[in-house]
């Protein structure tokens, strides 16, 4: 029998990892989706299906995906009711190693899930997704009039550990605050990332709910909300205390001091027994209000604060948890608690300190995984030779308990950090407008002023330094926070301040991306937890896609090959005293952090990333991309979206009527397009109403228009398509009713709706393809004589960032260098080299999809969805312009390559009908250039024009 320990140890992590394996198996084999609600199916497919992921620029990473899947699987598929259930339904044997009596406590007697995710990896996005999942399912149960399952709720309580996280949550839900205190909802996470979070047909529902239902901490129990509640507060309300006032001079605040030191004391003579005091506290308006709600989902952000350490290693409950116990006591499984923390554990005291993880951890996305995946910065312990070689004191100089100055060891560490910051600042500014910051973490508030004084003596001014005053715990009052946040607002975007000085505990919610150097100063021999030290600097600074490649290569060099970093892009440096290196050894062995011996030399921090601008005579080599605008209104009109030219389904309706299934059964379409968007339905004739049919059409619309965007006057970016959703909905309905089967078809009569969903050949797939083709035709069938042409010059992008090692100097392009892919980029490199030296070539350019976003062609993919295509090159030779796509021979015949070719040939045909000055007075051509053809003709001495013209004349048969 396994050895049982008092507490949990690491057993919850074993359970979480086992659960993740089971969930992933269920997701891969389809059984997961078979056992969740239709609403949940919609959400999961929108979030994680590759077809949707492909057309979005922003998606959940695998750690966020795992957390979302695990919670939903436990709640909907396994239907766990308490923490004990987590183990009984996953791996009961783990319970043999644990103190199971602990799981019988009241606080564990309801659905309860803890998400362990490294700092900076987006826990709030998981929270948002789970909230949407809960609300939409609860709403669906209400609308359907079915008996409520008890699994879902429209009421949410989000608890933050302090003002910083509290304000961050308000930013996420209501939008960021401007300098005057006003919030703009369009800057909220829900609005900014609505394409990720919310399927189109739920967008208005969710945005309306969030805007109308958020109650700030002072509004809980008093604000009238709409269809549910999103109460956001910090822990003080649940603990029954006000935010702590920072008191520097006790004589000025005698009342506050007495309140803090001498609160209401227990005593039976005054009626103040411990029980009465608890009851008095729990009668608070907010807590009573929350307790009276029929159901509630609680999100604890930074949930490690919910425990405290008692003497003798016993872990006790703080008042925060007692309040949650009170709120949940009558709700049973209608109370759901979801905790988020990078460090969900408690340490016992005594000689053998044991780390006990929360028993309800259901996912473990730890720091190492986040570093390896490039989701947070790599971490380097700066082991300075000059510090290591001298026996220096790292503690502040004191007179008794009073700090009177910094020690030489501290000064040396600060100076080392400042030196690194200056080098990074100088180098980063050369490449891009990035401003690295240094964070000095002081465990004692008395030390901070001396650190500020030190930096001023080193030549910095007041604007360069931000000193955050706080109490011994690092907490600040709301008044002080309101002053601080004005300087912290968008601090990443400004050159100053360069250095932030604070006590250690200014941590959760301090979401600054540009912290590159951390200097932890100590006032005692106590080591600072690694998670606390580095947590403030983990968030990525270099997020742009052009840096992905060099950062990935750097991670391989450092983490796999154990080499020195080749660049300092997204590398967090901790200037540590050698006395504490033993503390980091475990993390060094695990590969979470690395050792760096020396400060990088100037010029070596960026690796091979360079910034390439326009050459002096760029106008001689410039191209413009002609964008044909349809009409002034720039939307598809009702007249254009007609049924003409649309094809019916290839199986007669009479045949389909014969094979229609019996009523009231579950059914599922098996075509890939249907699986990705619709999933399993369970309806009966009387439930498939006009409302259900409208939702069905909305889902088809969402599938077609996921990559569209509405056009606004003055909009800089160019849409794939200009659309009118209402007209497309009308077209879908008319097509289904009058054209799909070449006869009139009413989906609401005689269970005809079943025909739309039952076919192995996928009628839905056919509908999507026909509607997509119609919209595409409307977009491309432009009257060239009346069209307005917008000429977008490539030179408007005056700077490209690229890797020097994977770029070439050129003489016939607007840029001094052109990049090629580091992975399988040999063919493109060869093309650039030979085009540039060909005497007949006038100019050429490599289209970069991250920068030249306008140079795009819309095409219909194999699956019927519309997508964007960027050719590889544009080459001008005399009066001919060639759009060139280079491809290995085995890729030329692939379906999507051929569909891109068809779309580009149609695009070229339209361009060549324009007036000469709208197409650079040149004839445009498209070349799909195979590797064998290119290399073979080069070896025979052919010119670039001969190769391109030969490829056009020879052509490749269109294979579909």
Automatic annotation (TrEMBL):
InterPro entries: Helicase/UvrB_N (IPR006935), Helicase_C-like (IPR001650), Helicase_Restrict-Modif_Enz (IPR050742), P-loop_NTPase (IPR027417). It comes from the Archaea. It holds the Pfam family Helicase_C. Residues 423-600 form the Helicase C-terminal domain. GO terms for cellular component: cytosol. One of its GO terms (molecular function) is DNA binding. Coiled coil: none annotated. This is Type I restriction enzyme EcoKI subunit R.
